[in-house]
Fold this sequence. Notes:
15 helices; 6-stranded antiparallel β-sheet; alpha+beta; Pdz3 Domain; 6-stranded mixed β-sheet; 4 domains; 2-enoyl-CoA Hydratase, Chain A, domain 1
Amino acid sequence: MIVLLMIVPRSDMDWQTTGKINSGKRMAWMRKLERALWISITAILLLLTGALLLSPVAFAQTGVRYRNKDYIENLETALYIIRNNYVDEVNLNDLFTGAMEGMFSKLDDPYSLYLDADFLSQMNDTTKGKYGGVGLYISKDRFDEDNPNDRLPYVKVVAPIEDTPGWRAGINAGDYIFAIEGESAEGYTTQDVSKRLRGEPGSKVVVTLLRDKSFTFDITLARAEIEIPTVKSTVINEDIGYLRIIEFTPFTESRVKENLTEFISGGIDKLIVDVRSNPGGLLDSVVDVADLFFSGGVIVNTRYRQAHLNQTHKASPGKIVPSSAKIVVLIDRGSASASEILTGALKDRRRAMVIGETSFGKGSIQQIVPLEDSAIKLTTGRYYTPNGINIDKTGIVPDIVVAEPELSEEQLEAYAKLLQENRVAAFIDKQPSPSDGQINSFVDEMFSEGLDPGERVLRLMIKREGERRLNVPPVVDLEFDSVLIRSVDFLSKGK
């Protein structure tokens, strides 16, 4: 066991009271103590990181050890100079936080970051399953070596959480948080955005979104107590079991198993597994879910910097879903992390047909290392599909690509104006359950005003707005959901 002793100096007032030590000695003494304090803090961080993240690794190269020592001493000197010579009084905690955030920013990894005490508390609330907010999974936009100028300095929405204020307001995966309460969010971290979006249930926040990197619009969101769901299901056409996995939590496997068992016992041998807008979750959870589809064999490989930490996760003998069952997996650009692990396993082992859009592309593993009242979140490994593919930054390409048609510039402008002026929301406010005739009249009215995003898009906006007002919205949409419609067609006709 290693014990670190930290000596804390008396306050400046104590020194002024004693009057026994001159200013020169006092400064030297203070500097020694600050140095001891700084080195102790750094040593604790290094020990925690070594003990909790990685196996003990001795520095075999003397040059590396001395280089680290030089860095620590330079940091200590900079801290001392700033604290004692900067023109204004400074807060040591702010300096420490700034140093930590700066260090992690140089990793150029949106998933590695310093978590301060406030944000860590929010994360703990999330893991309990409930918190006050708007219901968005967010991430910093990532650097693309092939398109270095394509990176925007805003936090991106990975996916809205279903049945939350953000989902009901029509926020999409891929939207950027452009501003909050009129204040530009340029350069904000995910912590900055999270802190501003969370709050007391019932309170409101105005969010400006940037969509398709081309237009912005405001949305007023009423915060709510967010309960993170896991699974929804239904039966389509009496012979297709539909299972939507919303997130991989400790409860997901039991919910999925319950639904699959019900489908199979009812004689259903066609399954749709929908992980669209599923941001991921726990590795153990997705491995347990995948185990329901396989009897033995590789589900996912995890690889780390230290080779002895590498692991192959395999399915156990026995499975819930028989080999004769036909399976389709639905993905989109909001399908990330654990949802890509499940998709990759089913695709690589030729157990399912994948339909939709290319997934998000998060093939890395993070661990959280606790500090005294904060923590660091660090990417420590990557996962690989059974065929040895890492999909980080590239995503999984579906077997059958089905994407929404792109809008023309004129249609995008009309779409943006409809959102900015809340025309569809106002229509549903007046007609909560509009008839076909009322919908047709509204569509004609918008077209006559030059607001034409395309008839299908406008009718879909009307339907979605109505569904967001329902306490229990429909599980599936066989009218406008082109990906789902294509998957049903594939299972019914085999092509």
